């Protein structure tokens, strides 16, 4: 069995490739739903994309994936170009796709037919006995003795021939430390070098129009707001509501502040046309929102241990495209080296 840790786009893409190749795959995730930062939430009659806001394609392989998603009805065109502080600034740029009806739809589509187990928090990875007659798995042309024993919080343990781990790198390293696994020095150094910025997200249902210009999004060039989108204009919400992503500097400074303080500061800066629905605003804290220092390769294969592949949006390239390509690379690595 191959265990995939994380049901975001990287983990789900990797799992689909492996299952289609005939392998037994289990995907675990600590969350209540699939998607990771492909996240959509309802507050009353308003719907919010509060993690990843759109999908763009820069490679032929990812464009092929997105074409399949569009044919399945889980993405739709939002706008061409780039937005700036005053709305649409460049109409000749890449097409931005939104999830249909929200970004979570992409992950739900990828999860169909997979063995995905939610609410499962991995606490440690330990190298256990091989558990088979021939002494272990073949990986990278060499036979590796042992397989992974994966412990979870208050739940089942798993024996896995190989693991793909797509959680944010600090969390991935923590479960290895908990299991007493020591990585090769070069691998440890490469993983330690990866960095993320946090992001505070405010989800604000409104009593009327937001006043944001077409296409329903702005990308400020200074101040506490990094991105703001009108989910009704975007086409995913029946009622008015905006998603506000704070800048890295604001998010770092206000990370431990009370929700009402975060909301007050960001709504003041937003200067929306209509007031918020009283008592309905929510805050989402994305601790590992944006990889700022990424590994140069689309995945990292750990040396000297049973098959273990690190993947996700901190490998090769950030955003949804980078995560999907990382998942493809992780699956291909296991298929090529078995």
Task: Label this structure with key terms.
single chain, alpha+beta, 6-stranded mixed β-sheet, 5-stranded antiparallel β-sheet, 20 strands, globular
Range of helix content: 25-40%
Give the helices and strands as they follow along the chain.
Answer: EHEEEHEEHEEEEEEEHHEEEHEHHEEEH
- Summed up, the helix count is 9
The unreliable regions are 132-144
Largest sheet: 6 strands, mixed
The chain-level mean pLDDT equals: 94
Proportion of beta-strand residues: 25-35%
The global form is globular
Main sheet: which strands, in order across?
7-2-1-13-20-19
Number of strands: 20
Rg over C-alpha atoms, rounded to the nearest angstrom: 21 Å
First-residue to last-residue Cα separation: 13 Å
Assembly form of the protein: single chain
Classify the secondary structure makeup into a structural class: alpha+beta
Quick description:
The protein is α+β, with helices and mostly antiparallel strands and 338 residues long. The protein has helices spanning 9-20, 60-71, 104-111, 169-178, 185-192, 231-234, 248-253, 259-270, 319-337, and strands at 2-5, 25-29, 40-43, 46-49, 75-84, 87-99, 115-118, 122-128, 137-139, 142-144, 147-152, 158-160, 162-165, 195-205, 217-218, 225-230, 241-246, 282-293, 300-301, 308-310. The chain starts with a strand and ends with a helix.
Question: How would you portray this structure in words?
Answer:
- The chain has 338 residues and is of the alpha+beta class.
- The protein has 9 helices and 20 strands.
- The strands form 6 sheets. A 6-stranded mixed beta sheet has the order 7-2-1-13-20-19, with helices on one face. A 5-stranded antiparallel beta sheet has the order 15-16-17-14-18.
- A hairpin with a 6-residue loop joins β15 (217-218) and β16 (225-230).
- The chain is globular, with a radius of gyration of 21 Å.
- The two termini are 13 Å apart.
- Residues 132-144 have low confidence and may be disordered.
